[in-house]
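Weekly structure sync, notes
Attendees: PL (lead), two postdocs, one rotation student
Agenda item 3: pending single-chain targets
PL asked that the sequence for the first pending target be pasted directly into the notes so everyone works from the same version. It is reproduced below exactly as submitted, 129 residues in total.
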Amino acid sequence: MDNIKKTILEYARDNLGTEPEKPWRKYPGYIVLRHDNNKKWYAVIMTVDKDKLGIKGDGTAEIINVKCDPVMVDSLQKNDGYFPAYHMNKSHWVSIILDGTVPKDEILNFVSISFDITAKKYPKSKKER
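Predicted structure, written out during the meeting:
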């Protein structure tokens, strides 16, 4: 396992209490990170053909899909290493290439943001309303 993927999985385990899942026998390298309580995904790591991301050249690229605020999606995609989400809602998700283009700390920040966005929401108490 490459260093950046290992770092993401260790971060998810140590800081977010998430164990990686490999739900598809056909794609053993694909990894899902999701909440235990509501089963919602907050990140998916996968390998896709570069052309599916709009990258020129042959071969594949490892990416992570994370959910973020729709306002951020468009602006993020203007930066190197960010792409419209592969196989996810392109209004709410973004794909980040895991080749070193995007710094690890920035990726981990987006993993945390995605975790928070997809967390189970509890009704506000009367005091908070």
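Discussion points:
- The chain has a mean pLDDT of 87.
- The radius of gyration is 15 Å.
Action: rotation student to compare against the earlier draft before next sync.
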